[in-house]
Structure formats: structure tokens, C-alpha cells
Design a protein that fits this description.
The protein has six helices and 15 strands. It is an alpha+beta fold. The chain folds into four domains: 48 residues, Ribosomal Protein L24e, Chain: T, CATH 2.30.170; 43 residues, no CATH class; 46 residues; 49 residues, DnaJ domain (Helix Hairpins, Orthogonal Bundle). The strands form seven sheets. The protein has a three-stranded antiparallel sheet, with helices on one face. The protein has a two-stranded antiparallel ribbon with strand order 1-2. Helix 4 crosses helix 6 and helix 5 runs antiparallel to helix 6. The longest helix is centred in the N-terminal third of the chain and has 19 residues. The termini are far apart.
């Protein structure tokens, strides 16, 4: 009687092993990863760190949006009840005085800009010029600058702001970071409206300048130029 060797690939390193030698690791988002013994420890550590990050987030008692706990402020209401509020909700708590109480402008998180109360996030004060907003998948805050596309250790592709990207790398939650388009344009020294031909010409010129065989070149610079070109032509 023939015996079938039931084998499956490890989702960490890709090696194919007998099913009995593999282990299941449940990630914070509920996804179950199948790992070999070597990758199991790494996956479990990553899952714990991601869970720790998730635990540091909480919903604002005012608007209900999720923020990192350190971004929320404890506010005591007139009846003595204590609530946690984001910056915008804190400014509109009834009975709170101060210079901000009657201000009709709301702060835009982190970048120091402000917008009129009731103004849509994708338009200026006149409603004529579109303003692109980007939401961070980690802290849930909105930014007017280009954010980072990252791949987490459990295989998810997410958009992170600079702070969350750095924190994710430090904590081992972020596996890789994709170059931003703005960085790619700067690396190739081309304008944001450059066409495909201009981008290719700039790439060919730049890649010759930084080639490792040249005195002023290096492997790191060569790879960065290649990444920039790939980013703008994908």
C-alpha cells in the first residue's frame, strides 16, 4: 500500500515540509500562518509585537475614530465624567474655556496646518483646489503628504505615516518599505509631471553615474536608482 507524504510550504521561508513538521501561528488580525519550526518563533514574536501595537490604540470617546493612546487626552466633563478625546473633539467639549474654545478652525494632525470647521478634507477654503489626503492604517490620522506603503511580517500591505513606519521597523512589525513616488522623482532628479521617456532618460543617465564600477558610484546608490525607476514605471 502506497503511503502519500502530505507536504506543504512554509509561509515564512517557502520551504516544503511534511505537514506534521509545520506549525500554525495565529496573527492579531485572525489570519493563521503555517510555519516551519525555524519561522515559527519569528512569527510568534511578530504576532506579539503587533498585538502590543494594537493594544496601544483606542477609540476617541467623541468621534469614535481609533488613535494611539498617547494621541488622546483625558477630559473631565461638567458632570465629573472623564473621557478620552482626540485633538479635534477636545476642542469642542462644552464648557471648556481657553483661546481655542471659540476658534472655528480645527488642527490637522501633526503637520501643523489647519482647516476651516466644516470644510471637506479634500478641498481648500474656496472649494476649488483638490487637496489629496492620505490616511495612516496604523494611527488612523490623516496627512497631506505622501505616506509609505509597507509590508508587514504577516504579509499585509498597508499605508503608514513616517512615525508609524519607523515604529513598525523598530518593533519588527514592518518587513519592508516601498519607496515613495516623491522620493523616486527626487532620486532621478525629474519633475513630478515627467513623462515615461523623460524618466527613462534620467534613469539611464543616473545609473551610469552611480554604477559601482565608477569611483563616485556605490552598490547602495545603484540599487536606490533602480528602485526609483521601478517605482515610477510599475
Amino acid at each position: 500500500m502506497a503511503v502519500t507524504d502530505d507536504r506543504r510550504g512554509c509561509e515564512g521561508c517557502g520551504r516544503t515540509l511534511p505537514v506534521d513538521d509545520l506549525h500554525s501561528v495565529t496573527m492579531p488580525d485572525g489570519y493563521t500562518a503555517v510555519c516551519c519550526p525555524e519561522c515559527r518563533e519569528y512569527a510568534e514574536t511578530a504576532a506579539e509585537k503587533q498585538a502590543e501595537l494594537d493594544q496601544r490604540r483606542r477609540a476617541c470617546d467623541g468621534c469614535g475614530s481609533e488613535y494611539r493612546i498617547e494621541s488622546l487626552s483625558e477630559v473631565t466633563l461638567s458632570d465629573g465624567t472623564s473621557v478620552l478625546c482626540c485633538g479635534d473633539c477636545e476642542r469642542h467639549v462644552p464648557g471648556r474655556g481657553g483661546a481655542d474654545a471659540g476658534d472655528d478652525r480645527t488642527s490637522d494632525a501633526r503637520d501643523g496646518s489647519a482647516r476651516e470647521e466644516g470644510e471637506t478634507a479634500d478641498a481648500d477654503a474656496d472649494g476649488d483646489t483638490a487637496v489629496v489626503r492620505h490616511d495612516c492604517d496604523q494611527c488612523r490620522e490623516s496627512f497631506s503628504v505622501e505616506l509609505y506603503q509597507v509590508e508587514t511580517v504577516d504579509g499585509r500591505t498597508q499605508t503608514f505615516c513616517p512615525d508609524c513606519k519607523d515604529e513598525g521597523l523598530d518593533d519588527g512589525v514592518v518587513k519592508s518599505v516601498r519607496m515613495r513616488r516623491s522620493e523616486a522623482y527626487a532620486t532621478l532628479a525629474v519633475d513630478g509631471d515627467a513623462d515615461e521617456e523623460a524618466i527613462r532618460d534620467a534613469y539611464l543617465k543616473k545609473v551610469k553615474q552611480v554604477h559601482p564600477d565608477r569611483a563616485e558610484g556605490s552598490q547602495a546608490a545603484f540599487k536606490r536608482v533602480k528602485r526609483a525607476y521601478d517605482r515610477l514605471t510599475d
